[in-house]
Amino acid sequence: MEYAIAIDSGGTNYRLRAVDRFGTILGECTCQSANHYHVGLEALPSIVNGNIDSLLSLFGGRREDCRALVCGTTGLDSSEDEELLTSFYSGRYGLSCPVSIINDAELAHYAVTGGEGMLIISGTGAIGFGRSRDGRTGRAGGWLFPILGDEGGGSWVARRVLQHLSRWFDGSVPDSSLLADVRKMLSLETRDDLNRYARKMGEPPWETPKVGRLVSDYADAGDEDAVGICREAAAYLFQLVLDLDASLSISPTFPDFPIGLWGSTILGSAVMQEELSKLVHGRYPDARIVLPTKSALDQAAEMALELWGMR
Fold it and tell me: Is the pTM of this model over 0.85?
C-alpha cells in the first residue's frame, strides 16, 4: 500500500502519522524525541529508525511504498541544519521518496495562520515566526539554552519558578502552596538539593522540570506568584512580536494582521493568553489573535500529500 509520512519532531515528542493517497490515517504514534542537538548525531539514526518502525508496524507498511515525507522539526536553526537534516532523511531507512524538512515553527505557522502574519510559540521553548505579504520570512527567539533564548517558554517558566524557590531558601520570600508542590514534585528539600538539580540542568541536553502546567493551574486559581510568572512570560512573548515586526515590517501591510498562538505553555494558561492579548492590542489595536484549529501533524500530512502530488 502506498502512503506518505508526516512528522512533527518537537523538543519533547516525536509524532508520526501515515496517510494513504486520500488522506485516510493508516497509523499514528508518539515516540522518542529526535532533536539532534539533544540526542546527538550518533544516536539519531537508531532513534529515527526505531520511530519509523513503530509507525509502520501499526499498518504493516513497507518502506519502499512510501511516496513522500514531510518533517517539521525543532533544531533546524541554520542553513547547515537544513542541509544536514534533509540529507539525513533523504535516501535513508529504505525510503527513496521526496523529502521536505522545515522548521517546526514554520509548520505550526501554516497550521494556525495559513502562512500569513506571525506565530508566537510557547511550548518547551519559545520562538516567533513571521511571513510578510511579499513572502519574506523571519524568526525571533528560539536560541539555545546557554544564551537564554527561550524566555516565555516552558523551560523559562521552570527556571523562573526555581529562581523563586531559591529566594525562599534564602529566607527572602514566604512559603506558598506553589513552592511546596514544586519541592515535593522535584524532591528539593534543601539548598544542596536545589544546587545539585541546577548543576544537572546546566549540562546538555539542558532538561528542565515539567512544572508549566502546575504554574498555569495556580495562576488560573489566582496565586500571586504564579500570576506574576505568567505575566512575565507574556511580556517576553510580546517582545517576539515586536522583534518580528521590526525585522519584517509586517504590521503596516496587515492592518488586522493575524498573530497565531501555539504551544502547550501558552495554550494551557488563560492568564498568559490574557496578558499577551492585552499587550498586543495596546500596540496593535486591530491585530487578530488566532488559536489553532488543527495540529502540526495535520498540517504536515497535508503537505506530504501535496509533495506526493495528491493535492
Answer: no
